[in-house]
Structure formats: structure tokens, C-alpha cells
Design brief:
Blueprint: H1 4-21, H2 23-50, H3 55-76, H4 81-87, H5 90-93, H6 99-126, H7 131-146, H8 150-173, H9 177-192, H10 199-213, H11 222-249
Helix pairs in contact: 1-2, 1-6, 2-3, 2-6, 2-7, 2-10, 3-9, 4-6, 4-8, 4-11, 6-10, 7-10, 8-9, 8-11, 10-11
Length: 251
């Protein structure tokens, strides 16, 4: 019998302790999760660029294809920072760990995700694939992301990781592989289509932008964007989703 609180707590403790006892292994698992997400970004952005003349179709294809990233992480294994915001907070709610215990796992996972995503996305841009179409498409995407309202950006981050963690939770509870895949793709579509902000996906997107567009873009808002979207993601996964799950299933 699946006991939600006990099992998620066990998973969370395992991640926290791996980050402390085997930091390199945890870092590599984080890098691979970032790389899987980058593969999804390459596919979805390539589709978006090829069909950018039809805005509605382009955006739908981007959203519909991005879910393979989360699916690969679930099926192949990897440490995704945004999903870990949910699983590793549960030991804190159950008083098995303290908030300070989360810091090593969150930092290693975050920078591993960003590095893995950045490497794959940079290689893609340097390969020269779809350069003309990608230049036009990424210019539009980057300009849109870098012009933001602070509150709106945080809220987009919160909603994004609430949805991502619903996907992670679904991946834990659904056993049939095909059903799990369908759910993950649709759930991820729910945050990509409205344009919510995922900090790790943004690491790949901004890497593509910096590599391809260079000094033609004012990158000064980029660090603030990453910080605010990360804060939003943490709130969305650890509080908006994690806390109600804990309160729902606790004794």
C-alpha cells in the first residue's frame, strides 16, 4: 500500500543524504537531468522555429513536445531541482530533516541542472543547425522573457513548479509506463503553453540566446530573471504543492 507521506519522505531523505555522502554522483545525476531537459528544449524550440509563421501552431508544438524532458528524467533517472523542491521538503514537514539540511542538495542539483542544460544547448547552437530560423525565433523568445514585471514573473514561477510537481507526483503513483508518459506530456504542456517560467529550462534557453545572439541583446536583466523564477519555483513546489500534500495525508 502506497503511503504518500512515508514514501515521499523516504525519497526526499535519500536525495538529501546522497548529496551529502556522494556529492559527485548526485551532481552527475543533476547534470544528466539538465541534459534531458535540454534535449526537450532543442526539439520544442526547433519545432517552434520551423512553424513560427503560424504563432498558434508554433506555440502548441513547443508545449506539446517539451514534456519528453520530464518523461526522460522520470524514466531514466536524474535529479531535477524543481521536482526536488517537492520531494526534499517532505522530510522537513515530517521533522526528519531541517531546512538547513536541504541546502547542499538544492545547490548541487541546481548548478548541475544548469550546467547539463547549458552544455547541450550550447553544442546545439554551435552545430549551426537551423541557424536562420532559430535566430529569428530565439530573438522573439528572449526579448519576451527579458521584459518582465517582477510580481508576474514570480507568480509564473510559482504556477510552473506547482504543475511540474503535480507531474512528478503523478510519476510516483502511476505504474503503467504508457499512461505515465501521456500524463507527463499533458501536464508539462499545462505550464509551457501559458508561458510559465521554469528556472532550469530557462538556463538552457538563455544559453542558446547568449551563444547565438551575443551582444545584440541586453542581458542585464538575465540574473534577476533567473533569481525570481527560481524563487517562484521553490515556492510553487515546496509550499503551494508540497504543504497541502503533507496536510492532506499526515496522520
Amino acid at each position: 500500500m502506497w503511503n504518500d507521506i512515508e514514501n515521499i519522505t523516504k525519497i526526499g531523505i535519500g536525495k538529501i543524504e546522497m548529496a551529502t555522502a556522494q556529492p559527485f554522483k548526485f551532481f552527475m545525476r543533476s547534470c544528466m537531468a539538465g541534459a534531458y531537459l535540454a534535449m526537450a528544449a532543442i526539439l520544442s524550440y526547433s519545432l517552434g522555429a520551423l512553424f513560427q509563421e503560424n504563432a498558434a501552431l508554433s506555440k502548441t508544438l513547443v508545449a506539446g513536445s517539451f514534456g519528453i524532458g520530464l518523461a526522460m528524467i522520470v524514466f531514466l533517472g536524474g535529479e531535477l531541482f524543481t521536482g526536488n523542491c517537492f520531494t526534499t521538503i517532505m522530510p522537513v514537514y515530517t521533522k526528519k530533516k531541517k531546512v538547513v539540511d536541504l541546502i547542499p542538495s538544492w545547490l548541487i542539483c541546481y548548478f548541475g541542472n544548469c550546467l547539463g542544460s547549458a552544455i547541450i544547448c550550447a553544442i546545439f547552437i554551435y552545430s549551426g543547425s537551423l541557424k536562420g530560423a532559430m535566430t529569428m525565433y530565439l530573438t522573439s523568445v528572449i526579448q519576451s522573457k527579458l521584459h518582465f514585471d517582477v510580481i508576474e514573473l514570480i507568480l509564473k514561477g510559482i504556477l510552473c513548479n506547482f504543475i511540474v510537481c503535480v507531474g512528478a507526483y503523478t510519476g510516483m503513483k502511476v505504474q503503467d509506463s504508457m499512461t505515465k508518459l501521456i500524463f507527463l506530456v499533458i501536464i508539462v504542456m499545462a505550464f509551457v503553453l501559458p508561458g510559465f517560467e521554469h528556472c532550469i529550462a530557462n538556463a538552457g534557453t538563455f544559453t542558446m540566446g547568449v551563444t547565438l545572439l551575443g551582444s545584440s541583446v541586453n542581458w542585464a536583466p538575465l540574473p534577476v530573471h533567473m533569481l525570481l523564477s527560481t524563487i517562484g519555483n521553490i515556492i510553487g513546489g515546496s509550499i503551494l504543492f508540497g504543504l497541502p500534500i503533507y496536510l492532506t495525508f499526515k496522520d
